[in-house]
Amino acid sequence: MPRQRGSAQHYVDGITACDRAVLARAITLVESEHPSDALLAQEVIEGCLPFSGRSVRVGITGVPGAGKSTFIEALGTHLIEVRGERVAVLSVDPSSQVSGGSILGDKTRMERLGADERAFIRPSPTRGQLGGVTRHTREAILICEAAGFGNILVETVGVGQSETAVRGMTDFFLLLMLAGAGDELQGIKRGVLELVDLVAVNKADGDNRARAEVARRELANALHLFPASDDGWTPPVVTCSALSGEGVPMIWDLVRAHRGVMQTSGEFAKRRARQRVEWLHDLIRQTLEAEFRRRPGVSSRLQEAELAVRQGAADPISAAARVFRNADS
Ligand code: GDP
């Protein structure tokens, strides 16, 4: 395919008409690391901005096996079939960087939802650092909003910083947990609990129902130990079964209730404003780094510095200073 893949207006027209092929191509365009795509990608995003911002943005996290894809399938189906809404599902999965394989992307997930015209599912970009993945997901949110998806679910796997990143681009952050894994906080960093707007103990069905209720109470107690947040929302702890769908509509009611509370208090606008500023800083940081790395000789000097630091021949501070000094000369 030639590099010139249509004008920005062509993309924006296709996106706002919810042409799924154009939508998918537009997201591929913004995910592209090719410098020649950057300007067109920027124009497409700018063209989408006037049509974006009106969706309900929900982040969903939990350890592998917690039931995220089952939950999203159940929630998405509920939104479509019961509430008559549309839903886009995006993923932030930097695990491919760490493990060489993607936790979220390797299996076939959400088949039923994926087959529905009223849903759009986009797997995580498979390459790139968390910063790049985050930027692409932010931009994909805007594109999906311009295509008229009123609900955006951003899924992330519970590895390190990705939760903070997803919390930073959504209005509501939901943690799915499992009961009966011994320590109820297992696998989830304490810091993540401080980010959440709701905790749902999943798989509360069959023999597991009672254990899920015990876990719910323990988690509610743990959350009570945190200082009350000043945004007027106390994160509820509930149980649900993604498999049977029990509790899923109630969770969405809580998402909507949270939005009401936040809009009334003005916190909603503040959170979105904070997120726009974060986006600005991320873009500046990434642009600076990309420009720096493109300067002649930087790439090889960086490699030398990495080698020296790895071998203990130089310390990181002086090695970094040398890379910068040489880059200026
Ligand atoms: P993910 O890795 O977090 O996306 O988890 P999955 O959605 O793939 O679920 C992991 C496994 O748990 C699958 O075998 C699901 O069928 C099962 N599962 C998910 N939700 C529930 C639930 O509510 N109840 C029960 N019993 N099993 C569930």
Question: Would you write up a description of this structure?
Answer:
There is one protein chain. With 329 residues, the protein is of the alpha/beta class. It has 14 helices and seven strands. The protein has helices at residues 8-16, 20-31, 35-48, 68-81, 95-99, 111-114, 130-146, 162-167, 190-193, 209-224, 248-265, 267-294, 298-311, 316-328; strands spanning 56-62, 87-92, 119-122, 151-157, 172-178, 198-202, 237-239. The protein has a seven-stranded parallel beta sheet, with helices on both faces. Helix 9 (190-193) links the parallel strand 5 (172-178) and strand 6. Helix 1 packs across helix 3 and helix 2 (20-31) packs antiparallel against helix 7 (130-146). The longest helix is centred in the C-terminal third of the chain and has 28 residues, at 267-294. The relative contact order is 0.11. The structure holds guanosine-5'-diphosphate. Guanosine-5'-diphosphate is lined by residues 62, 64-70, 202-203, 205, 241-243.
